[in-house]
Specification:
By secondary structure, this protein is an alpha+beta fold. The protein contains 12 helices and 7 strands. The protein has 3 domains: 118 residues, Butyryl-Coa Dehydrogenase, subunit A, domain 1 (Orthogonal Bundle), CATH 1.10.540; 107 residues, Butyryl-CoA Dehydrogenase, subunit A, domain 2, CATH 2.40.110.10; 139 residues, Butyryl-CoA Dehydrogenase, subunit A, domain 3 (Up-down Bundle). Keywords: FAD, Flavoprotein, Oxidoreductase.
């Protein structure tokens, strides 16, 4: 059973065509993530640059076999992420676009904020960032130390963020900070990164180098009142609620990236190893079956959060399973080429490094287990159903 209908099958086929243009860039982007600036004309990069912007704000993507694809559902994003990650995950995460910040804007920005954000995204390819994690507290909202100090016409934003994708080259960002005590005292604001007091620098990374994972330092960044996200909503629908819903909607896409990395490694074996012995063929086939099963879980999770954004437990199961699968598949792929595989096959080495990074992207395995447990306690997981076999 699959949730991918004929319309999404058309998109998947076109993405595979576009992916052929990304594969040759893999090692180039890994060496120099800024090389993506020379490839804005590629169809896949153009698609990512505006993915998630609704038609109501002037977005008219090119038709694919008579269909327009806006990237406005978790399921559609999962299809995009898997195919382009299979082509090259580095180019995927290096590309400009709204992505995480765009989903947050779509969820809880007011009309004026959406026009401002989407309008800028449509005017030229821009990078965005979503800044929650901090050096000493990770993504723990209770430990958030960045502050928003109120002024006559807005607030001053100060503090540090860590491990934020594309922050060093982002022009726009969504930043979470504390404006008061308790869980309701957390606010999200839109930030123009060119404003005085905002500084970001890339961190040295082993995997997912294309993402330009960065640290951020903010010293009295002026935030006007109109850039407070969710100001038209009750306090319970801002802050913590907002980033939880954002992660729920994006998590299936992150899981799909891991599926794409696993696929890429197995396809590399099929393309470069030649004739396989019977035992090797059995090992490879078993991994392919695991990839197919993981994809079904990702699609189920995406359909669940599309139906109700608070149902993120399946997305956590998908993230947990696929991150492990990506590591297993890439390391197994290396074993097909002998002890020197990672030296002799630099693309396989890159895939293994990227796969390991997926454990940490958008929450570690333990964080996903906590979400699953909360789903169980909340009655969202049927105790009588067969187990998810999450490891």
């Amino acid at each position: 059973m699959t949730h991918v209908d004929a319309r999404l099958a058309v998109l998947r086929a076109r993405l595979r065509e576009w992916g052929e243009q990304l594969r040759p860039l893999a090692l180039e982007i890994d060496r120099d993530p800024e090389a993506i600036r020379h490839h804005f004309d590629l169809p896949a990069v153009r698609h990512l640059a505006t993915m998630g912007i609704p038609a109501a704000y002037g977005h008219e993507p090119e038709k694919i076999d008579g269909h327009r694809f806006y990237g406005d559902s978790a399921l559609e994003r999962a299809v995009v992420m898997e195919e382009l990650a299979c082509a090259d995950v580095g180019t995927l995460v290096a590309s400009p676009g709204p992505l995480l910040a765009g989903v947050a804007v779509g969820l809880f920005a007011d009309e004026a904020q959406k026009k401002w954000f989407y309008g800028r995204m449509l005017s030229e390819p821009l990078w965005t960032c979503f800044a929650l994690t901090e050096p000493d507290g990770g993504s723990d909202a209770a430990a958030l130390r960045s502050t928003l100090t109120r002024t006559a016409d807005g607030a001053l934003l100060s503090g540090e963020k860590r491990y934020v994708g594309n922050a060093s080259r982002a022009q726009l960002g969504v930043v979470f900070a504390r404006s008061g005590p308790g869980p309701l005292g957390i606010s999200a604001v839109l930030v123009d990164t060119t404003d005085p007091g905002f500084r970001a620098a890339p961190l040295d990374m082993i995997g997912l180098r294309g993402a330009r994972i960065s640290s951020i330092a903010m010293d009295g960044v002026a935030v006007p009142e109109e850039h407070f996200l969710g100001r038209h909503l009750p306090a319970t629908r801002r802050g913590v609620w907002a980033f939880v819903q954002t992660f729920n909607l994006l998590r299936p896409g992150v899981a799909a990236i891991s599926v794409g990395i696993a696929r890429a490694a197995l396809e590399y074996v099929a393309d470069h190893r030649g004739t396989l012995r019977a035992a090797e063929r059995e090992r490879l086939d078993d991994l392919v079956r695991r990839v197919d099963a993981a994809r079904l879980l990702v699609h189920h999770a995406a359909a669940a959060v599309d139906a109700r954004g608070t149902d993120g437990h399946l997305a956590s199961a998908a993230k947990l399973r696929t991150a492990r699968l990506a590591e297993d598949a890439t390391l197994a792929a290396c074993s097909f080429f002998g002890p020197g595989a990672r030296l002799d096959h630099p693309l396989l080495d890159k895939l293994a490094r990227d796969a390991r990074a997926m454990e940490f992207l958008e929450g570690t395995a333990n964080m996903q287990r906590l979400t699953l447990f909360q789903g169980l306690l909340g009655g969202k997981i049927d105790r009588a159903a067969p187990p998810l076999a999450v490891r």
